[in-house]
């Protein structure tokens, strides 16, 4: 045995020596030496680069430098709630839903899983001999820590709500989960805090908007805290600057934001990346620069290090800027240092054998543990807003129930936006089916999300070359050039995707392909018809050679195009499609006559059924980033009002008038003004966009297998009349911090049990400005079911004229057995009493009286009060 050990020891020594000698021979330059610091390696590499090479390395799609062995690198990938734009990954709930959990510990576990899956996908791709590409890289532009100040913003679903403290707590754990242990040699991924700093819509004006009404107090108390927390407490490695201007300066060209605040005040030392196309906006939209040369110079001098753009990088004009004396090469070197340090920190230029994260295998993708995390978080997001007469939970052995509504059987709706494609998704209808015996459920879509009409399809009335349906022709290039791969006939409404590695047709590649769909239609009646469809990628609809709809987009957008036809006249219909920009290919199309929705038949189907679960709300097809959605109430991905679409309100009204007991499951990424629905519905469950297991989580709550504990991370207003001008960024009258007349307030959520919050004990009531307070709060479960309460602590500075009414400063999830009492412990550090001081123009803990509120929501009726003195 000792002899074997000796042989093994000698073998290992030999292997190590051989590896070391090989490594030395391979290391021609210091920047290739993993033993040096990232800074030392970056300095050496910069000294060997030409100006042209330096500039291209500052583009988000960075070209390789073959002579030095530098590989191609892409900075743009997404990991909002799973590794986005990739197949077979775990899709967790949308962030706004996860914020409702108030569970930052679980959030860390989720983003640790997300980063594992991202590394696994990347490793699998690279080891197959592929080059780094967009959406398959180690830089992820997550999290979005903007403040969701206005519920009309379509991208608010990507955030952690309207509160700076909750956003900070959640964002810190996202970054830590994505980047890996701080003491590790290599970062697992590089996370990104976006969009710095004052940014929350509207989508339609973000490229031109100039914000000059934001007071210094609102800037430092509302819009900056989450970014500061991610920089100083999470060591985030990227910050993305926003599109709009702040006080006349584009955010990506603002020395105030990127130098004085970010670097000088907060000590941030890593890279800044532009939002995609933001530098081009300098001269095309904001008109603060005359051309690309000046825009690029302005951005780099202000502190932007990496530029993202769809095409034609202004940063590639930096060489011209140097020649013209607008910027020095030393200024470019300063930015490039931060860029290259980031790449060295990832281990992306080192052998996989010495980078632990490079060993993560594909087997982690959607593994059982990750599936369980997705379900656990989906359950915790469920927020019960109304439960009249305790109609919930539903009985599993009761009478037959009806499941109605446009979101009931819609799996992609559960994915939200900026998502990947999961291995499997449980729709809400699927989830409910697991709770009841066969034959106990009647399902009917009932109505559309928005449209108050139903389309009678004419797809079966068209033909091409004497064959029914559409002729589909495919090419394995994006330009429809050369010989086609295959032609085939499509006889049903078009609905195709490459999700799950599905080809559009046999032999058609998953990327870089194009198609034409052609047919002829001879209408029987002179009337107006509608074309409905959309695509991810390039989409163009032509009728008789005239283009009716054309766009390139990275999500499938449902568009409605009305068109007048004459009886007996032939119409040639053509759809041109191309997969673009590493976007997952999708296309859907149908056409026909619209008829008014009539609920008479629906009510007849429900005869003998008393309980109806209506699943409605919104969808990622309606709210999101800069979307050309053409429906009443929606504009550019945002909403113009926050009421539930009329067609759904009418359906709920018809159900109630028919005497049904209505449980409304609302799926949305933003607040809905439920004022009419509180009357027409017996129960309201806010289900957000629940991810791959969202349907199971909804069913678990509806039937009592899980006791809901979610709390609103945003205010649900009574109506759109309570909202100010969308483009006004002043916080006065917005969110729970500056208004107290909500339908459902921030922090609100019901349970199937009841809790009593006892009198809090403080370890001190008078403190110095640098001292903390320890609060101990008794929580008693006075009901008959075990449950979880989220105890919340708010602070108000007495005699603070223009400050917030109250602002969240602590919370604690407390699970309590029925009939028992648990103690919630919440620490209030000195920063809990920090507010903007107008005299010193900075955040400060000032002497004086403070009120500390604690309870179960931000509503005054749910809170108890204590007084604290800062000496």
TrEMBL record:
GO molecular function: alpha-L-arabinofuranosidase activity; xylan 1,4-beta-xylosidase activity
GO biological process: arabinan catabolic process; xylan catabolic process
PA14 domain boundaries: 465-607
One Pfam family from the record: Glyco_hydro_3
Signal peptide (residue range): 1-26
Swiss-Prot/TrEMBL keywords: Hydrolase, Signal
Family to which the UniProt record says this protein belongs: Belongs to the glycosyl hydrolase 3 family.
Protein name: Beta-glucosidase
Organism listed in the record: Prolixibacter bellariivorans
